[in-house]
From TrEMBL:
It comes from Citrus clementina (Clementine). Residues 24-325 form the Interferon-related developmental regulator N-terminal domain. Pfam families: IFRD, IFRD_C. InterPro entries: ARM-type_fold, IFRD, Interferon-rel_develop_reg_C, Interferon-rel_develop_reg_N. Residues 21-37 have a biased composition (Low complexity). Residues 1-42 are annotated as: Disordered. Belongs to the IFRD family. This is Interferon-related developmental regulator N-terminal domain-containing protein. Residues 370-423 form the Interferon-related developmental regulator C-terminal domain.
Length: 440
């Protein structure tokens, strides 16, 4: 609108003898000023509502704080709240952390989601580092207090998102993944009996853990620790709950894509310290996983089984089977505002599915306007004009995205990992076809 009025103004100046053109130009400029004023009023009203919601987080009544958190989440989903965050970032973060420390299960779940949205909004930089550093301890503590599925799942998702955005090195990511792992494998004293986690909690843990694994270099993984995870995910493929099986299948596909299992097998095969048994065990585990995947890709389903869920499972495990046997990763394409968001490997697909689930109804809005997510997926949306918020943050955010720890560099690492895997002759495919051979 502004660009069009400027063009009309220039035309009027060049043709000053045309009174009608001058009148038209003046009218258009006045209209534009009213339009901008209206936009500012709408933004001011939204900021006022957010300010009121933030103030409500100080209230003693838990239901009032829950309502305020719901309003904040809705606002962050519907609009990129850069101006609000710039002014009230620290206050919002610490009030949400306060809710995690003292609130009900519902309040904790809402506050966790709000912190995750805050991290995605600020992107890379000092603010996301502060979110991670300030949040890990209270979130870890909250994970140990009770086993409400919704609360635990929200805490795990929040922990995954803030580490994904604010984590600077593999050690930080591994620390977070270990916290997640202890939800299903807690460290116990001699007189402590572990509570068995529910299916939703296991599913949330595996999904969050896999999401963070997408940022890791398989070559740097400790073989003993990661073999345990592979064995555990294999046992999950036999569970009755379909959501658990799907999450575990994606985790195994990702582990295989990083080349980790091949690395572990090669280490065991070439070792001189009596690891022959370990190598044989890994070969057997490979064969077991292949058979599990094949069976799940054609499962007939049980009584009362939801057809949609069954179809999703079959399609996923058909993709995994094709990957195991031939080395082909599934390719997807999602339309976002007329442009296609494409994935070509398991890492990208898992990131996309996780963030789509986390953002819910705000996914399309964030994919259109969130520069951090553009970096993550290498996505450039169609834009007729820049929003006020984007004009406002362009200069500050550009500094953030030039960080040597940016998602661009993480993506580059993932690409190199994929190229390495392909250059090794599609080892994953070879092992699937020659399970009984000694060749890896």
């Amino acid at each position: 609108m502004g660009k069009r009025s400027s063009q009309r103004k220039n035309a009027a100046m060049l043709d000053s003898d045309d009174d009608n053109s001058s009148v038209s130009s003046t009218s258009t400029m006045r209209s534009d000023r009213m339009s901008v004023s209206g936009t500012e009023e709408v933004q001011l009203e939204k900021d006022t509502l957010l300010d009121e919601a933030l103030d409500a987080l100080y209230e003693k009544r838990g239901s009032t704080r829950e309502k305020a958190l719901s309003s904040i989440i809705e606002a962050f989903n519907n609009t990129l709240q850069h101006q609000f965050v710039e002014k009230k970032f620290a206050t919002l973060l610490h009030q949400c952390l306060s809710s995690i420390k003292r609130g009900s299960s519902r309040e904790i779940a809402l506050a966790s989601h709000a912190i995750g949205l805050l991290a995605l909004t600020v992107g890379y930089g000092e603010n996301s580092r502060e979110i991670l550093e300030e949040s890990v301890a209270p979130i870890s503590q909250a994970l140990k207090s009770g086993f409400d599925s919704s609360k635990i799942a929200s805490l795990l998702e929040c922990l995954a998102v803030i580490t994904f955005v604010g984590g600077n090195d593999p050690e930080e990511t591994e620390r977070t993944m270990q916290i997640m792992w202890q939800i299903v494998h807690p460290k116990l004293g001699s007189n402590v009996v572990a509570a068995r986690p529910s299916a939703p909690i296991i599913t949330a843990m595996v999904s969050a853990w896999s999401f963070l694994l997408t940022t890791m270099d398989g070559c740097s993984l400790d073989s003993k620790k990661w073999q345990q995870s592979i064995s555990y995910f294999s046992t999950l493929l036999d569970k009755d709950d379909r959501s658990i099986r799907i999450a575990a299948g994606e985790a195994l596909a990702l582990i295989l894509e990083t080349g980790s299992l091949e690395k572990f097998s090669s280490e065991a095969k070439g070792s001189n310290d009596g690891s022959r048994e370990e190598y044989i065990h890994l070969q057997g585990l490979k064969g077991k996983i292949l058979n599990q995947v094949r069976n799940l890709s054609v499962e007939a389903g049980g009584k009362g089984s939801a057809k949609k869920d069954l179809t999703s499972q079959r399609n996923l495990f058909k993709d995994i089977l094709e990957f195991l046997e031939y080395g082909y990763c599934p390719e997807t394409s999602t339309k976002i505002g007329g442009e296609s968001l494409k994935t070509s490997n398991w890492s990208q697909l898992i990131q996309l599915n996780f963030l789509k689930h986390f953002l819910g109804g705000g996914f399309v809005k964030h994919m259109q306007e969130n520069e951090f997510l553009h970096d993550v997926f290498g996505f450039t949306p169609k834009r007729k004009y820049l929003s006020v918020a984007e004009h406002h943050v362009s200069s500050t955010d550009k500094r953030m995205y030039k960080s040597p720890n940016s998602v661009v560099n993480k993506a580059r690492t993932q690409k190199l990992n994929k190229q390495r895997m392909l250059s090794e002759g599609r080892n994953v495919g070879h092992y699937a076809v020659n399970v009984d051979d000694d060749e890896v």
